[in-house]
Amino acid sequence: MEKKNNDSGCPASDIDPFKNTVSTSDENSEAPENIETFSKIIESRIAKYNSGEIPTRLGKMTEEESFFLEAVMHLSKLTNVIAKSSPSGLTLLNRTNLVLQRAMTFMEEEFRTLLEDFGGCSNSKVEKNSDYPSYPPEVVTRMNRIATAMISAGFETECCQVYSISRRNAFYEQLKMLEFEKINGDDVQRMPWDSLEGEITQWIIVAKSCSSTLFPGEKRLGESVFFDSPKISQSLFSNLARSIVIQILDFAEAVSRTKRSAEKLFKFLDIYEAIRDLVSAISESFSNDGEHELKSEILATRDRFGEAAVNVFCDLESSIKNDAARTPVPGGAVHPLTRYVMNYLKYACEYRDALEHIFQEHAKLEAYSSATTLDDHVESESPHDDVAATTPFSSQIMKILELLDSNLEAKSNLYRDPSLRDIFLMNNGRYILQKAKGSTEVRQVMGDTWCRRRSTTVRQYHKNYQRETWGRVLQILSHDGMQVSGKVTKPVVKERFKNFSTMLDEIHRTQSTWVVSDEQLRSELRVSISAVLIPAYRSFFGRFRQYLDNTKHAEKYIKYQPEEIETLIEGLFDGNPTSMARRKTGSDNICVLGKN
Q1: How far is CA 316 from each of CA 390, 408, 492, rounded to the nearest angstrom?
Q2: How many other β-carbons are positioned within 10 Å of the β-carbon of residue 545?
């Protein structure tokens, strides 16, 4: 295009007066002259577009293009002036209406072309927030100018219809690429959990993409294109969001009606969080009663998953209470129930924010229905005396752990040996503590005070075990009662050494089959045993070994040298019933070598 000419075919010098007319005209201007001028410019430009002389193009909007849009808006204003004038202007009114109709048809088509052909990511899956929708800035500017002109000319309905259809189609295309498929509610009810779990995972991907990328992108685009009409932008977005959310919620509703079970909790919480994020992504655009009704429906669906989560925890309580066993776990090892509950709570605490909100809402409902229940609930929390135990969710976790402790205490009574009972409680207590301390989320829920109290409890089990098992051994190694009439006699020495060896063999035979799987705890036990047993035996051995020096078959009484005791202690808590035979053979050989 030469600088001296413009798209209307008029010389550039002739355009300037028109520009001035556009910028200064008002309802009292000389309408007929201006209308004819604007009409010719508009018709000329439309004709050139239709003939292909001026293709739809990107780049900065030219001065002539801006003038064309301004001419359309001013022609619309002048048409309103004519409509209010005398009947003599009917012919002119028909002329302007016809020109405006052609202009709107042309602009509507250009608007549609820009929306559908220049989005960039309409046919590719978006990966991040800034990718969608990826219209170049100059295209967004053009769409804004066209939308503003159409709305100003009274063609708001046509403009919004083109925009809505185009953006809804683009959104559905994205859902299709995310592999979103509508599933009949009855099919959801009949679907095996393994299959349904896969569908839920895919649904969560779709929901999160909507809340993190697609909805924010659509909101930004609408606000840019309809920058001068924020109410229209808000209405367009809320209509789009409503149509999408209703389809997304259909699946979630069907899932919420499936039979609940403990294994479903974490997928239910994933859905809960996804719906929560959806609400955050679209709630700002909810302004009228219909939209608030949709928001209420979304929140109701979310809350159904919240209540399902609360009920799963109630089921877990019942399962722990009813988990009675007649046979103890071999070797006093960690009980499967302990492992299950602690791993379950560990994963649950990873959803701490969601569960805190769920149990707070549940507590409000309980408080509303029964003030007495609320009072009882508050009183039950106070003994914990910990900041972490003040929330409803923390209290729920505490309650489950208290039930688990009671259950384990009952199971410990299945062991006839008090020492094994203490090992069982120590193993399980240590496992619970390590699981809590090893997870940041669990520790935050339980609090440091709880961890310190649990450590104290485990240490007490340790002390009980040591006193029960090794207290009797230390009594044998006591120097008291070794003298008869002021003299140490061989029979007493023989009996003490023999009793010590017999008791140590029995302890080793039995406790080598016991299980302490926590390496640190096993080491702590062995070190504590060595710390009291080895010095006591070394002292006894050093003091009384001499009285059997000339005794025939002394090895029958002095079976172990002091340095062998640590080797025996290292064989405890391996859970290996054959270790005794191997170590006994080795000990006998060492004793013989020591004797020689």
Answers
A1: 21, 15, 59
A2: 15
